[in-house]
Amino acid sequence: MDEPLRVGLVGAGPWATSTHAPGLADHPGTTLTTVWARREEAARPLAEQYGASVAAGFGELLDQVDAVAFAVPPSVQAELGVLAAERGKHLILEKPIAPDLAAATRLADAVDGAGVAALVLLTLRYTMAAQEWLAGLATAGGWRGGAARWLSGALLGDTYGGSSWRHQDGALADVGPHALDFLDAALGPIDRVLAANRTPEDLWHLMLEHDGGAVSTATLTLNLPVQPTVVEVAVYGEHGYRSLGRKPGTREESYTALLDDFAAMIASGTTGHPCDVHRGVHLQRLLDEARALAR
């Protein structure tokens, strides 16, 4: 591309401030053009920090940009994402991409209809360590099962403790997509959720069946007083046992890698990607299945 992509940021909360804004401003293929949030007093200092404008409304933001990055609750993202895609804007989506499968499907249909690029920020998948680990698993083959653990106290602290959608939807919605996506990538597509249990403290236990016969489990919580957060994925089979943990600094690395892919897709006119909007729909189906089983 001759010029960097003009990207508008929707949202001005902790994740927008710590990840989206600096990532978009620092990447050579993008420029943070404008910011819009429900509260202008939150959007203005964030925009000023990076020399961006403050949009008075979502429509005004769309008038100024080539792409939109979302850092808002899933229900808001799903609604606004459709409007942005219909205006021909490329999308950077948070996980989960929507509150339910119906809304996720509408979003994907809008993306397909407009022919725009849409990537989901599944942070684990964009790191070089994770890509090399997954490539090694694919080469070896013969994996029979696995497990993922994401144990966090995020909702006990100040940064995300006030996030109403995270309290309402819990760990399944917030970190579940990461765990499900990675198990799916490691062991083959997850066909169905075999069992799901949610404790009153929002500790989730899932059992998953993969195409090809592998079975995996996932344990998820945002309400456990552990520091640092425990993120581990492991598989086992004919070639023994292999595990991968999250290392410090992967958030910035992941966002840079996403923007590399995003800019390349737009420059080449391609829309398919392992972490595109259709991946988000697949994960949303699994989230809905788990919720139904846990009731």
Count of individual helical segments = 10
The shape is globular
Low-confidence stretches: none
Supply the helix-strand structural class.
alpha/beta
Name of the top-level CATH class of the largest domain: Alpha Beta
Q: Characterize the quaternary organization of these chains.
A: single chain
Strand order of the largest sheet: 3-2-1-4-5-6
Number of strands: 12
Write the CATH architecture name of the largest domain.
3-Layer(aba) Sandwich
Mean pLDDT figure: 95
Rounded radius of gyration (Å): 19 Å
What is the domain total for the residues?
A: 2
Strand percentage: 15-25%
Question: Describe the biggest sheet?
Answer: 6 strands, parallel
The CATH topology of the largest domain is given as Rossmann fold
SSE arrangement, N to C: EHEHEHEHEHEHEHHEEEEEHH
Helical content band: 40-55%
- Name the CATH superfamily assignment of the largest domain: NAD(P)-binding Rossmann-like Domain
Protein name: Gfo/Idh/MocA family oxidoreductase
Domain Gfo/Idh/MocA-like oxidoreductase N-terminal: 5-119
Domain GFO/IDH/MocA-like oxidoreductase: 163-240
Keywords: Oxidoreductase
